[in-house]
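Pasting two entries for a bug report.
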Amino acid sequence: MPANDALCQIGPPSSSKVHLLWVPHAGGATAPLFKQFRSLAASANAPKFVNFWAVRMAGRESRFSDPLETDMDSLVQSIAAEVERRFDANDALVLAGHSLGALIAYRLAIRLLEGPRLREGLSGSTNVKGLIVMGASPPNQWTQNRDWLDWDNTAFANELDRRYGGLPAGLKEHPDALALFLPIVRADLKLARGVASAEHPVIPIPIRALAGAEDHVANRAKMQGWQSLTSAGFSLRVLPGDHFFPVANLSKVMLTAETLAGGEG
């Protein structure tokens, strides 16, 4: 696929029919995934039966000139169109999302499983095998006040760092770089406005929740809430790290995807 497509394949393609599609956190890009995957590929423990993909969001990397998305329904529809174009019923697809990406992945699962059939507890035409949520409260708990998204850059950057941590080192000391980065994060976080009051259907695929042991944003207790959104089984696992634990634990995420897909090679 062209590099500027919404779906980006991380690593070389394989003959496996199992595909993991990762949706990044607010402000997230694909570069850290490429770096971690290269390191993982050199390991003897690297999963061998999973093709790894990521959603490349607008406004960054090769999609730098694309207008930023602030509407969840529009974003999910555009990603779903790419997924339906790329994958078919012979492909076993597992969705994974980190932080805001978990909300997007959940809405994407609903879209791919199709509304009418979902209400009947049936799967849609796309072969979605499961959903992995990482470092995110379930959507009905996203009730925090979002007025801070409209604060000036300095106040917004400080609040972003306070709430989530992980603001790139030294970024606040470089106003030009900060001015490029903050609009992306603002737009991404605006995608979650109103999500708590939206409809949250129960999906007929398993949900696997991964929490960071030192994550103060979405701890184990909060992530347990995802259990109410599946009729097909739930589990919760705590992994080392803070809110940004998923990339360092990529091998575990890929193995979880392989298990959800039934180990299809």
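Entry 2 (this is the one that rendered wrong in the viewer):
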Amino acid sequence: MFRTVSELVDLATRENKKISDIMIEREMKISGSSREEIISVMARNLEVMEEAILKGEAGVKSTTGLTGGDATLMKAYIAEGRFLSGEVLLEAVTKAIATNEVNAAMGIICATPTAGSAGVVPGVLFAVKERLDLSKEAMIDFLFTAGAFGFVVANQAFISGAAGGCQAEIGSASAMASAAVVEAAGGTPEQAAHAMAMTMKNMLGLVCDPVAGLVEVPCVKRNALGASQAIISADMALAGVKSRIPCDEVIEAMYRVGLQMPSSLRETAEGGLAATPTGRAIQAKIFGLAPENPSEHES
């Protein structure tokens, strides 16, 4: 039915349908399942997302102790009312952190599109829930819309840090969330595509450098910043701001950048933050190894 963002936008515009409906129809055609069955599965995903957010906001700690508790700090900070940015933005940050802290603590999350980037989409969705007065049906539609854009990225580029760096993982998740929130706010399919493009192009080149090879540092905080990027880009698109580079070309650029990225910056924990003295020391402490000399990695 569609392979590119431009085809998706054209289809939605021509048939006067929401992108979420187009994605549901695609799933019906591919799986042979009924509309009700497909929506039921997504509704369960929504429940898992909400449960993870609530658990994370209540406070969790990972086995390593590297992550946990930051979502509760953010909730307390928001409650004080002295924050510098907007409340919706900070709620998205908090809920994104909460989700990924649960992931790091080996809890149940919904990969969107991966476990390492699982906080962005639900973080944004539950942050705008009250602002946009979203019903459960509208929230499910949000997830299908995000899925439609994610489907394009997964098939035209990549969505894993190991394949294309964090730009392909949290970058894709943020772009998906940005497009979905535009549609949820009443924007056009074209505006959703512009939001996605602006989000992704501003995350190009983001490396995947997990300290000690664990999906904790800097992954959790990158989900937080990805969620904020998604909302800012959505606001820009809804205001009429357009990406000068078409969305499909941005996806292609992300793919090429990922191919050019050295393996040390693609989830191997051999470069970036993972290779800093502190990063190496954390790895040595967790795995009981002698700290490596950073100079050994310089040539």
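Dev reply: Rendering is fixed now. As a check, the viewer should reflect this: Residues 294-299 have pLDDT under 50 and may be disordered.
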